[in-house]
Design goal:
Elements (H helix, E strand, L loop, with lengths): L2 H13 L26 H8 L10 E3 L15 E2 L5 H6 L10 E8 L6 E8 L4 H16 L4 E5 L2 E11 L7 E9 L2 E12 L2 E8 L1 H6 L4 E2 L4 H12 L1
Length: 234
């Protein structure tokens, strides 16, 4: 990693803007009637379903570095308003609820531009994915005035949370604000369910936050959402 990029990531680790973590319990998902040789675990299925460089021409698709994570698991996160916990997880690449497996990637189009973080999580039964999406939607409604999330020495205060129209049909989408060194930044999050898989997208301009000289509004990348949702549907 180049020194400049490392500096940006380090700042964002402290401000909770850039985080990633995966590694939920891996439980077999194949039906009992399927031949043993054909069984595939939830983690293996998500590894095949997550977008790659080939799926997003013009973007750099990478696995985020866990050492810069806001938290390693949802258990490490506390919020000053309990109903807002799903929002804190969604904006810090942490899975909602108790999925069988989860995986995260980041996609950025160019230096200085916003990055979109993609977190896929699989649930059993599939109704649990629907329930977690409903819980996220409820949290958006209840946490409009903002909240504060903490994990270890990391703290992020979100000034506001507002529902908005997502780029995908049936999604739960919202924008939130955070202030760093007196500069306000707008972040965007969108969650979409596809069967037993919940895809959560989080867009942030980490370079603008690290620069601390200008506000930012990291619009959600419709290209990233479309590419990932299309791959999940196949």
């Amino acid at each position: 990693m180049k020194p400049a990029a490392l500096a940006v990531v380090s700042v964002l680790a402290l401000t909770s803007a850039l985080t990633a973590c995966s590694g939920s319990e891996d439980k077999p998902s194949a039906s009992p009637s399927a031949p043993k040789a054909e069984q595939i675990t939830p983690a293996q299925r998500l590894a095949k379903a997550i977008v790659t460089q080939d799926d997003l021409p013009g973007y750099n698709v990478d696995e985020p570095q866990a050492e810069y994570a806001f938290a390693k698991s949802p258990d490490e996160v506390t919020v000053d308003r309990s109903g807002c916990a799903p929002l804190a997880y969604a904006m810090n690449q942490l899975p909602l609820g108790e999925p069988q497996a989860d995986v995260t990637r980041s996609a950025g189009s160019a230096y200085g531009k916003p990055s979109t973080y993609i977190t896929l999580a699989s649930y059993a039964p599939a109704a649990e994915a629907e329930s977690e999406l409903a819980g996220l939607k409820k949290a958006v409604t209840e946490c409009g005035d903002g909240f504060t999330a903490k994990a270890g020495k990391n703290t992020t205060a979100y000034g506001s949370v507002t529902a908005e129209k997502g780029t995908a049909t049936g999604s739960v989408a919202f924008r939130s604000t955070m202030t760093f060194r007196g500069i306000t930044h707008t972040l965007h999050t969108e969650a979409v369910r596809n069967g037993d898989v919940l895809a959560v997208y989080f867009s942030v301009n980490g370079f603008a936050i690290a620069d601390s000289t200008r506000p930012s509004d990291a619009k959600m990348s419709a290209d990233v959402v479309s590419a990932q949702n299309s791959k999940l549907a196949t």
